[in-house]
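Appendix B, Record 12. Input sequence as logged:
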Amino acid sequence: MDKFKLEILTPDGVIYDDNAIGVVLPGEEGEFGVLAGHASLTTLLEAGVVDVEKEDKSVESIVINWGVAQVDEGKVVILVEGAAPIRGENESEIAKALDNAKKLISDIADSGNAIASVSAKIESAAQRLI
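Logged structural output:
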């Protein structure tokens, strides 16, 4: 199973730093997936959900407000202004993570359609955890 190093960084610190099998990113022109060996590129990211497929096949979702991704064959580095991982050991932790994610997205002065789309993805990610 091919894997690559994935780092998601904010001004406040590291959100994710581990290996991944794949990642789906909210690019300017739509979502796109990255697997190990992907051609090198640097691209802007819009508000949305980053879905990380981990080595154990589980998926972790991280809501971002905007940023940039730098991809090469063995590593993906995502620099974002703000991020809210949707993770938790119990329902109250997951609920708090959801609140943080929704607040991050609501702070963006963007179109209502984008916010509605991201909100739906946040709810979907939370359902996977429950």
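The first strand starts at residue 4 and ends at 10.
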